[in-house]
TrEMBL record:
Topology of the protein relative to the lipid bilayer: Multi-pass membrane protein
GO biological process terms on file: glycerophospholipid biosynthetic process
Protein name (Swiss-Prot/TrEMBL): CDP-diacylglycerol--glycerol-3-phosphate 3-phosphatidyltransferase
Gene Ontology cellular component annotations, sorted alphabetically: membrane
Organism: Kribbella rubisoli
Molecular function (Gene Ontology), one example: CDP-diacylglycerol-glycerol-3-phosphate 3-phosphatidyltransferase activity
InterPro entries named in the record: CDP-alcohol_PTase-I, CDP-OH_P_trans, CDP-OH_PTrfase_TM_dom, CDP_ALCOHOL_P_TRANSF_CS, Phosphatidylglycerol_P_synth
Family: Belongs to the CDP-alcohol phosphatidyltransferase class-I family.
UniProt subcellular location: Membrane
Database matches in PROSITE patterns: CDP_ALCOHOL_P_TRANSF
Database matches in Gene3D superfamilies: 1.20.120.1760
Matches recorded under NCBIfam families: pgsA (TIGR00560)
Membrane listed as a keyword: yes
């Protein structure tokens, strides 16, 4: 939801620009995603996290939340409904959802803690970098960052499914998670380089 709208901003009577209301469908979807996080965690950890019914419900909650992430941004850009609330709440909701999934799976012993730590350090580290350079410019999401998000979502979804005794599912989940972690590290380093270049360019004297 952080990308600029593709259509001209809406105009009030008399032709003056006006900001869209925060009470809109994209922001409602973002709030829904935030509300789904505690429900997802409860379903994942309920009864030790090992009953098929609870795991399927947790997976369903996770998938619904991920789908809202796709639609809220598309709707906001298409209908010129990008708001300051959405810019702040959307990435928070994303990180809360995936962070809860990583932490929950590691707590259940199904995902190594080092994977969760690497991902969490990268995610919140990039957020800190964005705030660090915000006076000098904005670092938009890169293609690698978007690929990272997709790989993480798919890998987490596969890990959440209860049928991990099926070798094809188990090894597919491991393979995609390995790819997600690799892309997570590479894109994290790329963001560090971009932040340093942005600050250096801002401090460079004008010719």
């Amino acid at each position: 939801m952080t990308n600029p709208p593709t259509n001209p901003a809406p105009r009030a009577a008399g032709g003056h620009l006006h900001a869209p209301s925060a009470w809109n469908v994209p922001n409602a979807l973002t709030v829904l995603r935030l509300v789904l996080v505690p429900l997802f965690v409860w379903l994942l950890l309920r009864e030790g996290g090992h009953t098929d019914s609870n795991r399927l419900l947790a997976t369903a909650a996770f998938v619904v939340a991920i789908v809202t992430d796709r639609f809220d941004g598309d709707i906001a850009r298409r209908w010129n409904l990008v708001t300051n609330f959405g810019k702040i709440a959307d990435p928070i909701a994303d990180k809360a959802l995936t962070g809860a999934a990583f932490l929950g799976l590691s707590y259940l012993g199904e995902l190594p803690w080092w994977v969760t730590i690497v991902v969490m350090v990268r995610e919140w580290g990039v957020t800190a970098l964005r705030f660090w350079v915000i006076r000098h410019g904005v670092m938009p999401a890169s293609r690698g960052g978007k690929l990272k998000t997709v790989l993480q979502a798919i890998a987490l979804g596969l890990y959440l499914l209860p049928w991990q005794d099926l070798k094809i599912l188990h090894w597919t989940a491991i393979t995609i998670m390995a790819a997600a972690v690799l892309v997570t590290i590479i894109t994290g380093l790329d963001y560090v380089g971009r932040a340093l270049r942005l600050r250096a360019a801002a401090k460079r004297p004008l010719p």
